[in-house]
Design a protein that fits this description.
- With about 130 residues, the protein is of the alpha+beta class.
- The protein has one domain: RutC-like (60s Ribosomal Protein L30, Chain: A, 2-Layer Sandwich).
- About 25% of the residues lie in helices and about 30% in strands.
- It is built from 2 helices and 6 strands; from the N terminus they run βββαβαββ.
- It has helices at about 45-65, 85-95; strands at about 5, 20-25, 25-35, 70-80, 100-105, 115-125.
- The chain has a 6-stranded mixed sheet with strand order 1-2-3-6-4-5, covered by helices on one side.
- α1 (about 45-65) packs parallel to α2.
- The longest helix has 18 residues, at about 45-65.
- The protein is globular and about 40 Å long.
- The two termini are about 15 Å apart.
- InterPro entries: RidA, RidA_CS, RutC-like_sf, YjgF/YER057c/UK114.
- Belongs to the RutC family.
- It holds the Pfam family Ribonuc_L-PSP.
- GO terms for molecular function: deaminase activity.
């Protein structure tokens, strides 16, 4: 199986030794996305805006690889404060409908750049 690096100009560039995403066969592995606007390099304010930005970044990477949010089968959500769960979940629910992906959500001690949320995804083409 061949793997292919996926990079969207509409999502923040990888800032370390990793790729925005890797396509392997019919599966796409999207690295954790912070709520950074690729055009400005700025981070959104507040958990709702940060969740939206992280999911928009994931959407851009999916589109670059020919996938859509409906192809996502699993996500991981990292929250700086689990108290933000309900607000994050409210925004998250507007992005995923129909057959919802599996998901785990953790509170973590810190996220890069002081972000309140980071989300990764795995998508599969049938």
């Amino acid at each position: 199986m061949q793997k292919k690096v996926i990079a969207s100009p509409l999502a923040p560039k990888a800032v370390g030794p990793y790729s925005q995403a890797i396509a392997a066969g019919t599966t796409l592995y999207v690295s954790g996305q912070l709520p950074i606007d690729a055009a400005t390099g700025l981070m959104a304010e507040g958990i709702e805006a940060q969740t939206q930005r992280a999911l928009e970044n994931i959407s851009a990477i999916l589109a670059e690889a020919g996938y859509a949010l409906s192809d996502v089968v699993k996500t991981t959500v990292l929250l700086q404060d689990i108290g933000d769960f309900a607000a994050m979940n409210g925004v998250y629910a507007t992005y995923f409908t129909g057959a919802l992906p599996a998901r785990v959500c953790y509170e973590v001690a810190r996220l890069p750049m002081g972000a309140r949320v980071e989300i990764d995804a795995v998508a599969v083409k049938a």
